[in-house]
From TrEMBL, chain B:
Keyword Transmembrane assigned: yes
This protein's UniProt keywords: Membrane, Signal, Transmembrane, Transmembrane helix
InterPro entries: DUF3325
Signal peptide location: 1-22
Coiled coil: none
Transmembrane parts of this sequence: 38-56, 68-86, 92-110
Entry protein name: DUF3325 domain-containing protein
Amino acid sequence: MPDSQFWGIGLPTETGPGIRLFWRDEQNEFQHALLSLDDGELMPAAENRETEGGHHFVHMHYEFHAGMAGIWFVGFFTMIMLVALISGIIIHKRIFKDFFTFRQKKGQRSWLDGHNASAVLTLPFQLMIAYTGLVVFLSIYMPAGVLANYSNPQVFFSELLDEPMHRAETGVNADVVDLSILFQRAEVMMGKPGRFMNVEHPGDSSAVTKVFGWFDEKDYEGQLLRDEIGSVQFDATNGDVMHLNPPGEYDKGTPMASQRVMRIMHFANFGGYSVRWLYFIMGMAGALMMATGAILFLVKRRQKSLNEFGSQTARVYRVIEVLNIAAISGLAVACMAYFWLNRLIPVDIADRASWEIKGFFYLWLAMLFHAACRPGMKAWFEQWSVFTLLALLLPVMNLLTTGHWLPSYWLAGDWSSVGFEVTVLVFGLMSLGLVLFLRRKLTAPERYSKPAKRSEAIS
Amino acid sequence: MSVAMMMSVALCYAAMSGLSLAMPRHLMDVTDRRLTATQIRVLRWTASLVLILAYLPMWQVWGAGTGFVIWVSILSVTSVVLVLLLSYWPKWAVRIAFLMMLSASVLWLMQ
């Protein structure tokens, strides 16, 4: 860590017991470690399993583990989602008549109903989440306004936020003053305890340190425009105060406040777990909307080919089918397998977190190959079977590797683990139902396709 | 989940099921009875009123803005549940609606 350009230190919190360290290594990569509270030593690997955990899903959903390119990639498709949502509303002629309608087991009709119902009923959420997702990266997706007026965007942001600019490295050596004194001074200036401190360019005369105030998620519950947590920035070479951002009401002007509200709505940071559960269900409805829409496209064309691609039509439909399977059941399998990797990859392996991510993508790729090699219905059936097994056996594997299971989590009052186990089981059971349905369809295609057609003739 | 949240969930579900039963095609799945035009209008207005009532506890606890966001979210989620019930177990969809209305009243009286 001595050559680090940037490092930070976090005090223990409720969910993260121990002192958290963060730094950028020589390759400018982010690293982190956890120190024991008792003796200040590094926590052993067994207690501090290096894992990407849930961050994998968060990072994937906005940058696809591909940095700036990934952010643009996701932004492009989010824009398409907005276009699809709005054009979907316009072409849906019976929004209010079909508001509560879902006719099951009626082939194409059911896919359309499922697509409509999941989208229409959760429409406010789908529009909000796509739009606010774009707004989070406002300055990346729409840089023209700033670039046209400022040669350096940093000048714009320092003016906008009324904060000092980032200091470039000078190459002149300078010692960092005693940080513990600065930490205490910051606590006095903010009038509240500190939680996190970072240092940029230590050892250089441009060194800057910043102390952030303590916050409890609960203090901000119900606030769509969250109060500032407070922070103080010092010149780390002499202890001069560079900037004080007092805790309390947010006062960076209306445009920044609007963006802040949208960020908070996107991150579901305003209502604790009950709101996160509501978001989760509506998010799942969104996934269902996309999956049913993609499947409907092919179901419709299987009834009557539209010959959009001339002589290649059948081949293109097959490619779309393979992609559908990989994107829907394949992705589900990869997500569930990721939780297995989290437990199964050896603890002492180097770069463990990156192996988890690699494993996820390799498995997803394997599902794509599988879908390409098998006939459509069989591929669906097999991939959902794998998903069912992975989901229903995950608690068993967890019991074998950690010794914990539902009742022990319950007794320990570990509610997030209880929630996770139950959710995984629910998904496993739903998928089991789907697998049984698909099996009946595979073994007796006659019996199931006929009534579907008859009812379609009636409706 | 807080009492206010339970109250809002119950009222949202009851209101949406009222609105769905005001449509003949959904009523058909539940009962052989037919409603007159006036009955349908009364049902629709009552359900709309209950819908607005569902916002009040959220407003009280979370404030107008945050409360609105959470109210819309609850509305979406309860509607999804309702549509699934209406499709697979229509009779239970209605029984649960009455149960929800009842429990909302009990919760309100207990306060």
